[in-house]
Predict the 3D structure of the following.
Amino acid sequence: MRILVGVLLISSVSSVSLAATVGSTQSSILRSAASTNQQTVDKRTVIDRLKKLKEKQLSETQSLEAAIRKRLQESTTVGLGGESLPIADQRANQMTAQILDLSKKKEEATARREIIDRMIFMVDTKYSTQPFKSFLEQQFLEMANKDLSDGRDGRLWKTLTYLSICVREVPEPREDILDVVEGYLDYSSVLNPKTPADFLASRNYTNGAQSETASTTSKEEAADDLKEPAIKPPTQIITTAAPTDPGGTQSGVTTPPAPTETAKAPQSTN
């Protein structure tokens, strides 16, 4: 009896121990997944990646500057003597509208490059071994505060604040934080920024490396889709017989006349 009780006690203790071990392992896995993007990163790797983003923006700025110079040079072709004044005004207005649009794009690219420059500086001078996610979240807030002070024009503080929120709220457990930052900068203007909620809504699917956005369909488009079947039935060709003309033709096809019985000559009676 004592042996049986001992076996039961050992079995009970083993089951409790196994359950505790499994529970501890599961909790450890969940904590590991949740803290993946809280880990430290290699400073040099981050700076190199940010420099590539800066080069991209610099190349875009240079292209826009070249386009602006070209449009300005085209102003030499606008004359007031060889063509009517309304046409000359129209050409001049079109040219200046194009220059204004290019100038706004250049201003946007320049502001975007400024944010990247400041990110490179803060990582290079302030980052050590702390979790990169919390580091970026706080540094973006400090950059926003600085943008509102020190005699700055304060045009980037809203974008920097939104970036801080995005870094904290948007990433998936195993997602690269810089992917989130780069994704927001690609999605939104930095001079007229979109909200973090809009950015999150645009990220309908992400696998940690890329995201896909689902597009909405308007009511008009949906109604058109309902009117037209996805697979059209084959067209039925209905042939209508044309009336027979006096010459025995029908629908362009000559029809031979029906055979007639030959009248027999009456036999003479003797």
